[in-house]
Design brief:
Layout lengths: L2 H5 L2 H5 L4 H14 L5 E2 L11 H12 L12 H15 L8 E4 L2 H12 L5 E5 L5 H8 L3 E5 L11 H7 L4 E7 L11 H12 L4 E5 L20 H5 L1 E6 L12 E4 L2 H12 L7 H12 L3 H21 L15 E2 L10 E2 L2 E2 L3 H12 L1 E2 L1 E2 L9 E4 L4 H16 L3
Parallel strand pairs: 1-12, 3-4, 3-5, 5-6, 6-7
Antiparallel strand pairs: 2-8, 7-8, 9-14, 10-11, 13-14
Helix pairs in contact: 4-12, 5-12, 6-7, 6-11, 8-9, 13-15
The structure holds pyridoxal-5'-phosphate.
């Protein structure tokens, strides 16, 4: 008798393992075999958490802040989040509209659990962050993937959105700046999408986790800023992982209408309970303390971004739109389909990445994992030296294809 197939719920077979973590795992295995792997697959800053934030977490532990807190987060942190939203977005929220969770991924999971009934449709622009469709499916929802092209900057258009809305549509997920493309929606693009949303009875989950990583003269604009009506329909998600290099602390938040916040708090009270107590106190320091470290990290990312994009576009057969946010480049590599590497013929982004890893020891993530066949995701959240060497290896790899 096959016991595990009897044991597992059907929903497990309906979801995929994260491709990003899979590639990172393969790269680690090759590295443990002594291979000099250069990995551009990670979705986290290579910097350590700034020291004043680390010290604040340590202080909290030493002061005995080691007990359960209110399941939806400590009032002091909710207040700091309200202040942050007022300061950065000029948005007024009260504490009963904020829920602190164990990372933005957990926040999104909770929101989907609180809003999706089986059969509900959720619109997901592609390329998308890997977890959106899989989390939607976990709750019996149907991801409606909107394909985009380089002509529209890998972003959806209002017309496309309008056509995809049905009576079953519950949510649109917007992610600007985007993982994996690094693209950002401008204020006018967001306003045009908001017009469509407001003409229908749908909600927007706005994932703003890369808010602080925006380059050049560009600025972040949240769809909640469009109007009070749009704010009412927005579930704003953000967190500490990317801006403050706090991926391991597991801290994120939502800001939304009080009824949904209460529902999410109730779900959390029956699942994880509160996010780790010392992480919450450190989260206050991150928001209220000096932002110099954030700006320093951003400047370093920007330098690497410029080098990466310029270099990628000098490699024959590769084209890469300029990303203005996050820490990813998303080059088009489809011109190599049908060409042969030592390991075999490149038929898709997965075989491209597999041969690149095996033959040139460079780890990048196939676009198909993000719903975008023909592309790869190259994370420049790693040292400049590694980027220089990695792009040299990529160039030699593609020059060797025939
Ligand atoms: C677009 C996007 N949203 C959410 C998350 C989750 O972040 P957190 O570490 O806060 O769970 C990530 C992390 O990779 C992300 O890229």
């Amino acid at each position: 008798m096959n016991t595990s197939s009897n044991l597992l719920a059907n929903r497990v077979s309906e979801i995929e393992e994260s491709i990003t973590l899979k590639i990172t795992g393969l790269a680690k295995t090759l590295r443990s075999e002594g291979k000099n792997i250069l990995a551009f697959s990670a979705g986290e800053p290579d910097f350590d958490t700034p020291s004043h934030i680390k010290e604040s977490g340590i202080r909290a532990i030493q002061e005995g802040k080691n007990k359960y807190t209110v399941a939806s987060g400590i009032p002091e942190l909710k207040e700091a989040v309200c202040q942050k939203l007022l300061r950065d977005q000029n948005l007024t929220y009260s504490s009963d509209q904020i829920v602190i969770s164990c990372g933005a991924k957990h926040s999104i999971f909770n929101v989907l659990m609180a809003t999706i009934n089986p059969g509900d449709e959720v619109i997901v622009p592609s390329p998308y962050w890997v977890s959106y469709p899989e989390q939607i499916k976990l709750f019996g929802g149907q991801p409606i993937i909107l394909q985009t092209t380089e002509e529209t900057g890998l972003k959806i258009t209002p017309d496309q959105l309008e056509k995809s809305i049905t009576p079953k549509t519950k949510l649109l997920i917007l992610n600007s700046p985007s993982n994996p493309t690094g693209m950002i929606y401008s204020k006018s693009e967001i306003e045009a999408l908001a017009d469509v949303v407001l003409a229908h009875n749908i909600w927007v989950l706005s994932d703003e986790i890369y808010e602080h990583l925006i380059y050049g003269n560009n600025t972040h604009f949240s769809i909640a800023q469009v109007s009070p009506e749009m704010k009412e329909r927005t579930i704003l998600v953000n967190g500490w992982s990317k801006a403050y290099a706090m991926t391991g602390w597991r801290l994120g938040f939502i800001a939304c209408n009080p009824d949904l916040a209460k529902a999410v708090g109730k779900i959390q009270s029956q699942s994880t309970s509160n996010p780790t107590t010392c992480a919450q106190w450190a989260g206050i320091t991150a928001l209220n303390g000096s932002q110099k470290a954030v700006n320093d990290m951003k400047a370093a990312f920007d330098e690497r971004r410029q080098y990466t994009i310029q270099t990628l576009n000098t490699i024959s057969g590769i084209t890469c739109l300029e990303p203005f946010g996050a820490f990813y480049a998303f080059p088009n590599i489809s011109q190599y389909f049908g060409k042969s590497a030592q390991g075999g013929t490149i038929t898709d982004s997965v075989t491209f990445c597999q041969f690149l890893l095996e033959e040139s020891l460079v780890a990048v993530v196939p676009g198909s994992g993000f719903g975008a066949e023909g592309f790869i995701r190259f994370s420049y959240a790693t040292s400049k030296e590694a980027i220089v060497e990695g792009l040299n290896r990529l160039r030699s790899f593609v020059e060797g294809l025939h």
